[in-house]
Structure formats: structure tokens, C-alpha cells
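[audit] Reproducing an earlier prediction to check determinism. Same input, same settings, fresh worker. If the C-alpha cells differ from the archived copy the diff job will pick it up downstream; this log only records the rerun itself.
[audit] input (296 residues):
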Amino acid sequence: MKWTGVIPAITTQFHDDLTVDHGAIAKHVTWLVDNGCTGILALGSLGEGATLRHDEKLAILSTCVETIGDRVPVVAGISALSTAESMQLAKDAQALGCQGLMVLPAYVYKGDWRETRAHFNAVFQATSLSCMLYNNPIAYAVDVLPEQLAELAESNGNLHSVKESSTDVRRVTAIRHLLGDRMAIFVGVDDLIVEAIPAGAVGWIAGLVNAFPKESVELFDLCTEGRFEEASVLYKWFLPLLKLDVVPKFVQLIKLTQQEVGMGSERVRPPRLELVGQEREQTLALIRDSRAARSL
């Protein structure tokens, strides 16, 4: 597993009856890889992982692995209500051919550091796969501090990466200071990538890449190459869209964007509902205006 580049946190596509649309997922991940993405991450927050049964999760991972083959690695998002369930999903993901895991805290119960550490240790040690820790204190109310990340890295030789979604670019600097190149730091919010790369980020778990893979890869590459004047031009255009990733309805917004570019459907599983009324119209106006401006 090489933790670098732009790895989409893919959406889960559904049929009209809200069963998983594996054909649409296969088409989508192929398109993403064709446009330069360096991996595929399934079953994350954007993938509505909390609404998926265990068997559905395994079927989605199988579709991704079978579709992508050895072109890029497939990473499984690991999240569940219990540590035991998370461990089982990790083992099943390895058996299906996934090359990496992105491990979340347990849903619902928010433990103290002793409990949180025990959960992560158990899941990391359930397989030999290379692991990424997903730190998102805003969404999950669990904040793994840089010092705690270093403690976990010392105990787990297969913890190689962190998806840092605290929205604080200083976290990137702090992790780099403590762990150097031992930890591959990924940005986990779309509107922080340009600021985080100079601080030491080497990857991007991205959301709007689901609809704009070419632009996402181009922006990342410009930044990693130090071509910040060119990056700033693209970033100015892209930023209003990237901000769709950092609000509560990010799943609905990104899926609507995918639908607009012809690569998916806006369908979501309850408790989420599709956007309606003024909220939907304003979002469509933003997407369409942005696409028109890009084509000028």
C-alpha cells in the first residue's frame, strides 16, 4: 500500500429501490482511476457506510477490487458500533483483496483515550494490512491528538497514515514534527488541500473528486510540484465547489454534483433525503455556473 496522491472517498450508488447499484459503482471507480486517482476508498462517511449492512459492505468492496484489479489499491473504510464488528470487517476486507484500511472510532459511544486507544489497537492488529487512522473530531466527537497518534504508531507497525480532518492545518505541522516521514498525512477536508501540502501533507482523501477527478488531481499535482501560482487560479475556481464537502449535507450535495456531470445519482438512503426546493436550486446554480466558467 502506497499512501500518496488523490484517493476518492467514493459515494455508494443506489437503484430506485435503494439497493446498491454495483454497475454504477464499477463505472464510477473506473472513471476515477482513468483520471489519475491513486486509490479507491469505499465505505467512508461519504459512502453512507452507516446505512449499509455488513453483507452490502463486502459486496461493494468486491465490486471495487474486481473492477480495479491491480491498477490502484482499494482501501476499506472500517466503522461499526462495536470493536468486534470493526475487527471482523477488517478481516473480511483483507480476504476480499483490499490493500489498506481506513479505521474510524466506534459509532455512538465516545470513549476516553484508554478506550479509544484499545479500539484502534484491536482493529489495527486484526490484520496485516496497512492502516490509516481517520481523525475527524467534528463529525465523530473523538479527537486523536498528535501525541496520541505517535503512541499508536509506536504500538502498531502497520499504522502508516492518518486522514486528518480537524480542519486545523497546524495539526499537519505537529504530526510531521513528531513523526517525520513515519506517518503519511492525508487531508480529509476538501478546502484545506492547498494550505496543507506545504505543511507536509502527501495525500488527499477527497470528496468533490467524485465529480471532478481531473481537476482534483491537477490541483494536487500543481501543489506538490510547488506551482502555486497556477494552483491558485484553479483553486479560486474550485473552492466554492470544494466547500460543499464541509457542511452537514455533504453527501447529498456531492451526489447531486455527480448527477449533474453524468456520473451518478443523487439518491441517498434515509435518514438522509435528497435536496429539495431552494436548497437544491441554489446548489444546482452553483454547479452549473462553475462548470460553465471552467469551460470558458
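[audit] rerun output stored. Observation attached for the diff report: DSSP finds twelve helices and eight strands in the chain.
[audit] end
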